[in-house]
Sequence to fold (998 residues):
Amino acid sequence: MLETQQDKPAVARRWDLRLYIRQQPVMLALLAVLAVICFAGVSGLSRVYHAQRAALGNRWFSRGVADLNARHFESAVTESRAALLYSPDNYDYQLNLAEALIGLKRTGEAYSYLVNLWDQQPENGQVNLELARIGAQRGQTGQALRYYHNAIYAVWPGDQEEKRRDTRLELIEYLLSIHAQAQGQAELIALEENLGDDPSQQQRVGDLFLRAHDYEHALGAYHITLKSDPHHEAALAGAGLAAFQLGRYPLAELYLQEAVAGNPDDTQSADLLKTTEGVLQMDPFRRQLSVAHRDEIVVQTFATAGERLKSCGIRASAATEPGAKPTLADSWAKLKPKISEEYLRRDPDLVEQAMDLVFSIERQTSTTQTGPSQTSPQTGTTCGTPSGADLALLLIAKLHEGN
Amino acid sequence: MDPAFNSLAGRTIDEGMSHDRPVATRPRNGRSPRALLQSVFREERFFLILSVFIGIFSGLAVVGFRFAIGWCRIYLLGSGAVLSPTRLLLAPTLAGLVIAILVIHVFPLARGSGVNQTKAALYIYNGYIPFRTAVGKFITAALAIGSGHSLGPEDPSLQIGACLASVLGRQMRLSRDRMRLIAPVGAAAGLAAAFNAPISAVLFVIEEVIGRWTAGILGSVVLSAVSSVVVMRWFLGSESLFRIPAVQLERPSELIAYAILGIVGGLASVLFSTGIATLRPKFKALPLWTQYFQPAVAGLLIGIIAWLGAPQIMGAGYEAMDEAMHGRFTWEFLALLAGLKIVATLLSFVSGTPGGMFAPTLFIGATLGAAVGGAEHVVLPHLSGSPGTYALVGMGVLFAGFLRAPMTSVFMVLEVSGNYSIILPVIVANTIAYVISRGLQPIAIFDVLTRQDGLELPSMEEQREEGILRVEDAMRPVADPVLDAQATLDQALRAAQSATAEELLVRLSPAGWNSVTKQQLGALAEQGKGGASLASLLPIRHIPSLHPDLPLETALRYVDRWPLVPVVSRADFGQLEGLISQRDVLERYREFGES
Fold:
C-alpha cells in the first residue's frame, strides 16, 4: 500500500514530464539542441572529408606539376583533372590543367579554363599571358594585344619586373611577327626605358629594334651592350648592320670588321663588310679624296654601270627618232667617249654628269635587295638583284640622294 | 503550461487568454506569458519556425549524403581520373548485388527516384514517410552513385528531406493539414541543398509536387530551402555548380541555333522518357528472383560501357559535364556520350536501383547541347556561342523536355551557372523542347511512373492546363428591367409588368443592390403603399456583387443565399454586366461535365 502511494507521484511526474516535453516551445528547444549536435557531428565528418580530398587533390596536383615541368603533357592533363575532382574551384589546379592543355595544343579546352580563371582574377599575369598566346595562335590580334597588355600590367609572383619585361618582349616579338613595326617600335621604346644596362637584354632589344627598322635605337642598344662587353660578337654584328642601314658606312666598317674578326663564320657580316668597303671605296664624293683618285673612281664606276646595262641586255638604239626621249643606254653611249681621267680633269662638271647617269642606271635597273628579279619600268628589261659593285653604287646613290 | 496548450493553438489571442489568472502575473501590456507564447506558437507560425529546422536538418543530411557518395566513389572506383578496368567492372556489379538485397529485404520503399513517393505522401498518406525510407535511400543511393551507376543525388536528397520533415512533423503532432504539406517543405529543402539552388528547388516543388501557389505553404517552402542551402554552403562552399563565361549574342539570328538545340533536345527527351516508360514495366514483370540481379547486371553493363572508352557516363557525371563545357570533347564524341548516358540511365533506373534522374538528365542535356553546338559551329563557324553555353542551354532543354518543369528549367540553369546572360537562349530552347515533348508524349514521365506503380496522383501538368470556369461563363445578360430604389412602388410595378422573371434586381442609392419579387410588389400595392419609395418599403439588405473574371466556385458561396446575384464591372461597380443564380451555376457545371 505504501509502495503504491509512492509510485503514483512518480508515474504522475513522468506523465507531466512527457506532457511538458510535448509543448511546442520545449520541442523547438530540443530541436535546436539536436540541430547543434548534428551540426557538430557533420562538422567532424566535414573536416575528415575535406582533409582527405585536399590531400588527394594535392597529391595529384604535385604529380601534375612535375609532369608539366617535365613536359609530359598528357600525364599532366590526367593528373590535373584528377586533382580537380577533389577541388573543382582550385585556381592553381585549373591553371596547371590549362597549361598542360596548351602544351598538348588543345587550346580550345585551355581557353575555357583560362577565361573562367580570368573571371576570378583578371589581374593574374600568367592567365593573361596564356590567353594572349592563345589569341595570337588563333590570329585574334585584338584579343591577343588586350591580354598581352593586361599581362604587362598584371600581378606576377616572384620577380614581377622581370616577368613584365619578358611579357613585353614576347608582345614585341608577336607584333613584329604580324608586321606591326610601328606598334612594336613603340613597345620597344617603352621597354628600353625600364631596361637598365643589362648587356644581354640590350642586345636582344637591339635585335628587335633592327627588326622594327628602328636603326637609331638599335645602334644605341648595341652601344650599351658593347660598353660592357666590347667584344660581344652579336652586338658588333648588329651594330654594324644598324650603322650600315643608317648609311654610316665608316662606323659600320669598324663594327663589321671586329665582328668578322671575332667570328669568321659570320658570313652575313662578312658580306655586309664587303659591301660597306665597296661603298667606301667607290664613293667619288667622299672627303679627303684627291682629284686624280676621284676621277679614277668615276671612270671605274661609269664602266661598272655600263656593264650593268649590258648584263640587263640594254643596248643603245640604232636610230633615235627626233624628239624621242633617249634611253639610259643611249645616254651612257653618248657620254662614254668623254669619260676618261683626262677629260674629267679638264671638265670637272663631267664628274657630276657621269655620276648622275651612273646612279640613274643603278636605280632603274635595281630591284629590292632581297626581292626576286623584276622588270624595270624604264628599261622594260629583267635585271637581277644588284650585288657587289652595283649594290655599292646603288647605296652610294641613296646616300647622296637630295644632295 | 498545460496539455491544453496545443489545442489552443489556432485560436485568436483573446480566445486563448485565461481571464481568471491573477493580475500580478500579467505583464504591463496586459498579456500573460502563456498568452504571449500561445500567440507566438500559433500553428501557422510554429510551422514556419519548424520549416527552418526542417531546412537545417535536411541540409545536414544532404551534406552527409554528398560525403557518403564521395567516399563510396573513392573507395569503390579509386581516386584518380583514370579508373582501373577491374574496378570499372567489379564496383558497380558488386554494389548492385548489395543494393538489391538491401532494397528487397530492408528498405523496400527506397526504390526509384523519390519524387513520386513525396507526392504520394502529400496526396495519399497524409504526409507520412517512414524514417527507414530516408536511411535506406541514403545508404543505397550513395552506394549506387558512388559505385558508378548512372543516377544522380538530387531526387534522393529531395526524398530524404521530405522524410525528415515528415518525421519532425509527426513528433510535433501537427494537424493533418500541416502534415500533408510538410513533405513538400522537406522536399524543397533537400533539393535546394543538393542543387545549391534554392529558387529552382522552390519552383520545382511548387510546379511538380504541390501544383499550386498558396501563401500558406510558400513561406515554409522558401524558408526551408534557404536554410538548407545555408547549411550546405557552410560545409561545401557557395560556388555555383558550373561556371561558364558570359554569353553575348552578337546577332538575334543566333537564337535560331539555340532553337535547333531545343528541337533536338525535345526529341531526345521523348526518346529517354519513352525508353523508361516501356522498359520499366517489363523489368518489373520479370520473375522475383531476377530482381536480385537486375541492379548488378545493369552495373556490369555500365562498367563495360565505361571500360570500352566512356567512363564519363558513370555516376552523376558532374565532372564530365564540366569538361564538356570546357570543350574537352569533339561534338561527335559528345553525341555518343549523350546516347550512352541515356542507355546507362535506362539500365540503372529500370533495374530498380535507387537514385535520381536529375543529374543524368542534366548530363544528357549538357553533352547533347555541346554536341549540337559543335556541329552547328562546323556548319556556321561565325556563331559566337561557346561549348559551355550550348551545354548549359542543353541542360535546361532536357530538364524542360524530360522532367516537364519549364519554369524550373529556366531558373535552374541560371542558378547552377550564376550566369544571367544566358537567359534568352535558355527560354527559347526550353520552350521549344517542352512543346515538342508535350506534343509527342502527352503524359509526363513522373505521371507515367506513378500510374505504373498503381497510384493515381494528380498530374501537375494536367492541372496547369485544366480549363477554369469563371463567373462570366455562367452569368446571363440583364433582360429584365432593374428597379430603382428611389422610384415609387407604382413606378416599380409598371416597370415590373414587362419583366419575364419573377425576381427583379433593385439598384440602391448611392450604391448597392437588393432584390424583390413581383409578388412582394403586388402585396405592398394592395396595402395601399403605391406612393412610397421602394427603398422605404423593402427590408434592409445588401446583395453582394461579383465580377465576371472570378472563378465560378466563388459564386457558389453566394448563390444559395441570394436568389439573384449581380455581376458588375471591376472598373465601374455601378455598371451591371449580368446576373447569376444558383441555377445558372449548376447548369454551367453540368454542361462542363458533359463536355
